[in-house]
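Researcher: Quick test of sequence recovery. Tokens follow.
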């Protein structure tokens, strides 16, 4: 709800400034259920909920793992995920992470965390990962979000108001 209101407020502010297209292309997708990710491999995440989409950039029916650019230009983009604490057991050195790819091939941003014991021998880690940036996209380019778990058993990406989520917001023409 808050993201939708924020997007509407940005559209109104842009219209007042005389630049209605400033956020005409914006979308945010998330998943409302937990997702399992395989161990020791990057796993593409899917989304079943559309929080907002002003330019038919996302579909829950087809290609639900991506947001596709319809209006070319400079975009701000981001994504995030949270690992379910019940499957996030810190008992050995492991790596967890998240990354965003353009067209399922080029890494746009990534966030890794390596789990090691602290000075007391206790393993410490973090459960949330956020990635994003600003980039120029052409029509048809798309973004996907992937998660990585270095555990020997599967890890669960927890559901919530923002996890996992992927979004894009048009900033300007190029």
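Model:
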């Amino acid at each position: 709800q808050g993201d939708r209101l924020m997007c509407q407020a940005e559209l109104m502010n842009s219209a007042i400034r005389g630049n209605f297209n400033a956020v005409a292309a914006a979308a945010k997708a998330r998943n409302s259920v937990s997702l399992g990710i395989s161990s020791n491999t990057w796993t593409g995440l899917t989304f079943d909920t559309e929080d907002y989409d002003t330019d038919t950039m996302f579909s829950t029916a087809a290609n639900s793992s991506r947001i596709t650019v319809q209006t070319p230009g400079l975009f701000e983009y981001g994504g995030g995920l949270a690992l379910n604490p019940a499957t996030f057991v810190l008992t050995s050195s492991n790596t967890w992470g998240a990354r965003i790819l353009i067209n399922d091939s080029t890494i746009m941003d990534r966030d890794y965390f390596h789990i090691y014991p602290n000075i007391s021998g206790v393993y410490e880690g973090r459960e949330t990962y956020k990635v994003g940036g600003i980039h120029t996209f052409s029509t048809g380019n798309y973004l996907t979000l992937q998660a990585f778990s270095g555990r020997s058993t599967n890890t669960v990406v927890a559901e919530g108001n923002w996890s996992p989520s992927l979004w894009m917001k048009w900033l300007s023409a190029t």
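The first helix runs from residue 2 to 16.
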